[in-house]
């Protein structure tokens, strides 16, 4: 189910990130361990995450996913190992909330993309998913919340 579809201005924010390139069939295998690595590296620098984790995708996935797994931070992190500092740049964005299991995300993106196209705006190639509430919440999958974000051109 999609909720709260809107077009808004978003301020830029710092992130700590790990670049990820993985075959579509293996994405679930790498997400948890990569997120744990990122959280540990940020905590080791004495920095607390400044919001929910997200994936910043650079293109539509095909056989491979190419994205940065990110944690928002109140200030830039120091590069260490695979960890890099980054910024999600200020932009006008289209966004909505998807409520449900992650397996429904492809259909949610299709419906959201149709709504965005109907607004008569052009979008960039990149997009991101902000994982507001997922498996760690203890809630059943039908109650998980993911914010879908498409920056406008």
Structural topology:
Layout: E1 2-10, E2 13-23, H1 27-44, E3 54-57, E4 64-72, E5 84-88, E6 91-99, H2 105-118, E7 127-133, E8 145-151
Task: Describe, in plain words, how this protein is organized in 3D.
This protein has 153 residues and is an alpha+beta fold. It has one domain (2-151): Multidrug-efflux Transporter 1 Regulator Bmrr, Chain A. 21% of the residues lie in helices and 40% in strands. The protein is built from 2 helices and 8 strands. The chain has helices at residues 27-44, 105-118; strands at residues 2-10, 13-23, 54-57, 64-72, 84-88, 91-99, 127-133, 145-151. It has an 8-stranded antiparallel beta sheet, covered by helices on one side. Strand 3 (54-57) and strand 4 form a beta hairpin. It is globular, with a radius of gyration of 15 Å.
Summarize the structure.
The chain has 153 residues and is α+β, with helices and mostly antiparallel strands.
């Amino acid at each position: 189910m999609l909720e709260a579809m809107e077009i808004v201005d978003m301020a830029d924010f710092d992130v700590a990130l790990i670049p990820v390139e993985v075959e579509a069939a293996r994405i679930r295998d790498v997400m948890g361990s990569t997120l744990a690595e990122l959280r540990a590296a940020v905590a080791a620098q004495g920095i607390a995450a400044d919001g929910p984790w997200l994936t910043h995708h650079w293109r539509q996935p095909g056989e491979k996913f190419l994205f940065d797994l990110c944690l928002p931070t109140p200030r830039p992190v120091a590069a260490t190992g695979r960890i890099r500092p980054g910024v999600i740049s200020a932009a006008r964005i289209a966004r909505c909330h998807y409520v449900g299991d992650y397996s429904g995300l492809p259909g949610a993106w299709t419906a959201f993309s149709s709504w965005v196209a109907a607004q008569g705006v052009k979008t960039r190639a990149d997009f991101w998913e902000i994982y507001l509430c997922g498996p760690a919440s203890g809630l059943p999958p039908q109650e998980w919340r993911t914010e879908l974000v498409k920056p406008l051109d």
